[in-house]
Specification:
The protein is of the alpha+beta class and 329 residues long. Strand 2 and strand 3 form a beta hairpin. Keywords: Acyltransferase, Transferase. InterPro entries: Acyl_CoA_acyltransferase, Bact_Acetyltransf, GNAT_dom. This is GNAT family N-acetyltransferase.
Length: 329
């Protein structure tokens, strides 16, 4: 068996790498999610100032046994590398995941980083699963969980109509892929506050600091990779952005759509702005659907108000995403 480097520049190697991960997800998850092959390869080959991604494969002859995907953070959290490991079910319990993890740890240590993080999929109630058990058996400590909820689109129009509401003192604005120039500063600031306020559990994270320039660069990257977004914001009487929601997906895999963020500034909470921005954004998203799709969202269990909003809309629990950390000496 040998370790194969995957950087995205060899499309044949990358296809084999991607297939292992994609096959495992489709076999083990009721609603598999993840980036499409070409969008993922674009991540691996991009010159991104915020992160870089690469992969490893464990190969026996011409057979791919398993893979590891690594994300190296370059702006914030530069002491962290995030890893995902997947093993072809035919080759499990043969030490494939352990061999890949050992290789990953050696490379992370060589780079001077001190923390390895991972997220695994588990039972929707407890988070238990084979990935959780493997990680904890190798020293990873469970730090946080997020509930994964899904809903099939298009939604029943009657449900949408019944939940739509106006909130006195606020007006709603919408845009597509590009944030209007006049909202760049407010939107970047909302991103920063959201990064601070979103529940992190016991995870070790540095808050992302967003600027208009960073926001524009991320939008350009997203568009280049084939992603699209629908954004709805609530603006208060002073003309300040009070809440926003973003949904979208990638044209490569239109059957998978994502609720990226829904955020209400702390001083504006308690007025129902979360659902007030979600409903028109869902209308915008559904108006362009050409085929049925599944909308995915994740929330920490302590974010009960947002989970309740999703339940009102008809979302149901699919699984838990469990975040774990391993300190490297």
């Amino acid at each position: 068996m040998q370790i194969v480097e995957v950087d995205g520049h060899d499309p044949v190697v990358f296809e084999k790498f991607f297939k292992v991960r994609d096959d495992v997800r489709r076999a083990e998850q009721e609603f598999p999610v993840g980036l499409g092959q070409e969008e993922t390869r674009a991540m691996f080959t991009a010159d991104d100032p915020d992160e870089r991604s690469n992969g490893l494969g464990l190969v026996d002859g011409g057979t791919w046994l398993g893979m590891a995907w690594l994300d190296w953070w370059l702006t914030e959290n530069t002491h962290i590398v995030d890893v995902e490991i997947a093993v072809d079910p035919r080759f499990r319990r043969r030490g494939v995941a352990t061999r890949l993890l050992d290789e990953v740890k050696a490379r992370v240590r060589a780079d001077g980083r001190t923390l390895l993080t991972t997220s695994v999929i588990g039972d929707p109630d407890t988070g238990a699963g084979s990935g959780t058990a493997f990680a904890q058996a190798r020293g990873f400590v469970r730090k946080h969980t997020e509930l994964h909820q899904v809903i099939e689109l298009p939604m029943d129009a009657a449900v949408v109509d019944a939940l739509e509401r106006e909130v006195p003192g606020y007006k709603l604005l919408q845009w597509r892929d590009h944030t209007p120039q006049e909202w760049l500063a407010d939107f970047a600031d909302a991103y920063t506050v959201m990064s601070r306020d979103v529940p992190h559990g016991e995870r070790t994270v540095e808050i992302q600091q967003w600027t208009p320039e960073r926001l524009l660069a991320r939008e350009a990257q997203r568009i280049e990779r084939g992603r699209f977004t629908h954004t709805t914001v609530a603006v208060d009487t002073d003309g300040r952005l009070a809440a926003y929601t973003q949904m979208g997906g990638n044209r490569e895999s239109p059957e998978r759509l994502y609720q990226y963020d829904t955020f209400v500034r702390p001083e504006h909470r308690g007025h129902g702005l979360g659902i007030a921005v979600k409903i028109p954004n869902l209308r915008s998203l559904q108006a362009e659907l050409e085929h049925p799709a599944v909308l995915h969202t994740w929330n920490a269990p302590e974010n009960a108000p947002m989970i309740a909003v999703n339940q009102k809309l008809g979302f149901r629990a699919s699984d838990q995403r469990v975040a774990l950390e391993l300190e490297l000496s």
